[in-house]
Protein 1
Amino acid sequence: MTDLSTFPITKRWPAKKPDLLQLYSSTTPNGVKISIALEEIGLPYEPHYVDIGKNESWTPEFLSLNPNGKIPAIIDPNGPDGKPIGLFESGAILLYLGDKTGKLIPADPIRRYETIQWVFFQMAAIGPIFGQVGFFNKFAGREIADKRPLERYRDESRRLIGVLETRLKGRQWIMDDEYTIADVSMLGWVRNLIGFYEARDLVGFDDFPTVAAWLERGLARPAVQRGLTIPARG
């Protein structure tokens, strides 16, 4: 049996199956990326619920694995050369899982880098901007009388959805007919934007029918439906 005791996070979230990949997460857009990817790939794993409502991601145990204090994070006991590896940042984890299994990422080097660029597009643009829309539209930011920040993030969200709309024209998935980590990285964010963040009308989402159809296709995938509820709330 693999010994994961060198990872302090396992003291707060003990591994019942230490030979499996350990996922520390919750059902946020960044969190579900990894559970969806794992469900799509079929790689066995053990999920642990990190309650961000109770600031569990800021505990010393979690910070020992992810110094950025954001979910998700993983420990793979079967990392490179058979050695355990701990990783944080969802984009890096997606790329790692793709490379580890040869799934959800093209083998052709050119298409591989094209896929990675769209993952970076989500991490550098869609994630931060949609998150700000959520703050100013649904959470404490909505109480701010000056609506210029909300308007700025609304307009930038529309621009980013427009980038996706252009890319997806004539394509089933971001990489043509191949479903990849690029799609996995964005499905949860677009879903949250128009659902949980209640910003469908705000950003005029119905002006982007190609993105809407892509989202519907993605959410219809059984692995996506399972991944959206993993890890279960503690």
Protein 2
Amino acid sequence: MKSFQNLLLLQNLYRLKALGFEYSDSFSVNQISSNEKPRNLDELTKNISTCHLCDLSKSRTQSMSGFGNPNADIMIIDYTVSLGEDSTNSYYCGRSGEILTNMIENVLGLKTKDLYFTHAIKCKPLNSNTPSTSEWDSCKDYLFSQIEFVKPKVVITLGKDAYAKVTSEDDNFQSVRGHVIDFKDYKLIPIYHPNHLLRNPDDKKIAFNDLKTIKSCI
């Protein structure tokens, strides 16, 4: 039965070829099987850029895999990709990006290219909704693999949502903000998100002290 079906398929292919269609006998989607774990950060980045594991792939302009030094001492993790980041393919865009750049350059004494910046959720949420649990489940292996490949000394989470996703802890954010937390083989320090500082400029003094704590760890 199977050989008869194959014969019909082959006859149909020849018929289509006679009509002017072209086909190939075999093709490869990726050089590396989707079942294989990426062997380095470059392979992981390629996987993220072509990911279609959840519905966010339908709403994004591109997936945001990460930016910066792959051997950075500091890794910054934001919660999710903003509309501005998605449309410009920039990790430091808008007023929030300006604040974060100033924090890095003026307090830590580094350049943005010296750090590694990524998101817990790699794509812009659909219609600016809060990402679902299943969407986080699709992304979390990417994030934790990035941490393993970069091997930073310090992991900075921006805001309570990024902290909650990375640590799976629902602690009061104010009780952990600015503290040095032992996280796997790294030091994790949650700080205010730049968007929070835009809305609450008086907290910039607190953020400044948190950045000094970060600087003392590198």
Protein 3
Amino acid sequence: MGELLLIRHGETTWSASHRHTSYTDLALTPDGERQARALGGLLAGRRFVRVLSSPRQRAIRTAHLAGLHVDATDADLTEWNYGEYEGRTTADVHAEHPHWTIWTDGAPGGESPAQVGERADLVLAAVTPLLEQGSVALIGHAHSLRVIGARWIGLPPSAGGLLRLDTATVSVLGHEHGRRVILRWNQPAPPPSETAPAQAARH
């Protein structure tokens, strides 16, 4: 069986300032572009039977700079819709709603945990059969990828709150003795000086 790689996009201005970003289509910062290129070092030597990306430019650009060829975009890989909390920080929301958490409360005017979980399950249902042929890469966003990680191991969407995921990181889902497991989580790219030379685009 192949492995399922979850790749979070590089830094944007809003991720750097911890602002919730879903449908706002931001570009990578210069640091985000450097982070994305450095991901090539983690992915060197890997081949994928399928590479799927969120349609947001920050995800597609990250894939390109990391040396990946995106086979298709998938709307189910877009970030959690934060609704009225788009562009706001958790600290800002807590000033009005001290006990709010996206993992249990969802976002007003946006998505609930159950709705994001449904999207995660659709992604996993689509890619799991492909793992019999080899590894698959998914390029996306922090909260939605955390939910995919939780759902892979049979936990509810809210369990994604226990899986921190930083920008420009690689997480690996796989199997042990026939059971679904997390093989690696939130692995950052190596420093630029250790980054492998640019690779040809990889499937």
